[in-house]
Write a structure and sequence with these properties.
By secondary structure, the protein is α/β, with parallel strands linked by helices. The chain is built from 8 helices and 12 strands. The protein has a single domain, classed as NAD(P)-binding Rossmann-like Domain (Rossmann fold, 3-Layer(aba) Sandwich), CATH 3.40.50. The strands form 3 sheets. An 8-stranded mixed β-sheet has the order 3-2-1-4-5-8-11-12, sandwiched between helices. Strands 6-7 form a two-stranded antiparallel ribbon. It has a two-stranded antiparallel sheet with strand order 9-10. α1 links the parallel β1 and β2. Keywords: Oxidoreductase.
Length: 210
């Protein structure tokens, strides 16, 4: 699969590197051409501008900070439909670091508004980049579950393929309107982790949940 990555930071490195290792074609586009080239050389991918990445992929990954997302999408012309007809993966988290609450309650919906025609899928936002670098994606004998929120069936199928390429197990979590719940879950989990808690211990197995 051809994957264009908007951004050259840690999530671009972690996800792009693993996808390149799995045999997918990856092009990293960054605001800094030097950083994009450096990352591409490290992970074995192509590199270019943000616009190059937006035009390259069957799937596009938005891998920038939540604060930078608006500017990056405007740079590639997303408000004019430049990403229309393709899956756009949103892995952002808009977390206020002062109190670990949401700074923006609906990032995925905002990104969808800024990318008319694109099939936005919220994914990969519940784990930090070191998790995505690790292999295999297995914890306590089970593959890592990766929640996906989106409205487009074809886009969800493509993102599921990319989850499995990392060794994870895709978990459909509802439409894009539910992405705000996934974003809130990330903020909640980060607070638990920073406090030394184990989020995996908070939820009973399905057979005992109800």
């Amino acid at each position: 699969m051809r994957i264009g990555i908007l951004g050259s930071g840690r999530m671009a490195d972690a996800l792009g590197g693993r996808w390149a290792q799995a045999g997918h074609e990856v092009l990293v586009g960054g605001r800094s051409p030097e950083r994009a080239k450096e990352l591409a050389l490290r992970i074995g991918s192509q590199h270019g501008t943000l616009q190059d990445a937006a035009e390259f992929g069957e799937v596009t990954l938005l891998a920038v900070s939540a604060e930078a997302a608006d500017g990056v999408l405007r740079t590639v012309g997303a408000p004019d439909g430049s990403l229309a007809g393709r899956p756009l993966i949103d892995c952002t988290n808009s977390v206020d670091q002062r109190d670990l609450t949401l700074a923006e309650p609906a990032m995925a919906e905002r990104i969808s508004e800024l990318s008319p025609g694109a099939a936005v899928v919220k994914a990969f936002n519940l784990a930090a980049d070191p998790v995505w670098r690790s292999t295999p994606q297995t914890f306590e004998g089970r593959p890592l579950g990766v929640p996906l929120c989106g409205d487009d069936e074809a886009a969800l199928v493509k993102v599921e393929e990319l989850v499995r390429a990392l060794g994870g197990e895709p978990v459909r979590a509802g439409g894009l309107a539910r992405a705000r719940l996934l974003e809130a879950t990330a903020a909640f989990a980060i607070g638990i982790w920073f406090g030394g808690g184990d989020t995996r211990a908070l939820f009973p197995p399905l057979a005992h949940a109800f």
